[in-house]
Design brief:
Layout lengths: L6 E2 L3 H13 L5 H10 L4 H23 L1 H8 L1 E4 L3 E6 L5 E6 L3 E7 L2 H5 L2 E8 L3 E8 H21 L1
Length: 160
């Protein structure tokens, strides 16, 4: 069995993921609102259902902000060598992916507004079958990772 990858995503990624979860999961609060609009608030049973839904969804929202980004950061690891890219991730379902460098078609860096605010960038690795991502690396590290993968992929292509 291969050893666990050693490279980690920087701790600043937690804050970016927290903001992303806070904004993205805020739509959960529309569920009790829609319930109230559809069924009304004149019946005490409906009021209790709306309150219960609100409390449960607020709990999910808080765990999505404070628990899952930390667990995601704790689990995310990667390693790059001359032959393959090793990705390990997953909070509830743990995944381990090995990408042979001979299969890499191109490598990109991406940076949305939140990642830019925290000076982070994601590296996307495209193969013929799918696209993989190493999320929220430091900008400088992301550029080095992109260049390293590109160089190794060219070397692997020459070996084939």
């Amino acid at each position: 069995m291969k050893t666990v990858p050693q490279q980690r995503v920087p701790p600043r990624a937690i804050r970016a993921w927290q903001w992303s979860a806070a904004l993205g999961n805020s739509t959960l609060f529309l569920i009790p609102l829609v319930w109230a609009l559809v069924f009304g608030m004149d019946d005490p049973v409906h009021i209790r259902v709306i309150l219960a839904l609100s409390v449960v969804l607020f709990g999910f929202w808080l765990s999505g902000i404070f628990l899952f980004p930390f667990l995601k950061w704790k689990r995310w690891r990667y390693n790059i060598d001359r032959h393959e890219i090793d990705l390990q991730r997953g909070v509830l379902i743990h995944q381990r992916t090995l990408i042979p460098l001979s299969r890499v078609q191109h490598v990109d860096t991406r940076q949305g507004p939140l990642l830019r605010w925290y000076t982070l960038a994601s590296v996307t690795i495209s193969t013929a079958a799918t696209t993989h991502e190493i999320p929220a690396l430091d900008e400088v590290v992301a550029e080095k990772v992109r260049d390293t993968i590109s160089t190794y992929a060219r070397l692997a292509e020459e070996d084939v």
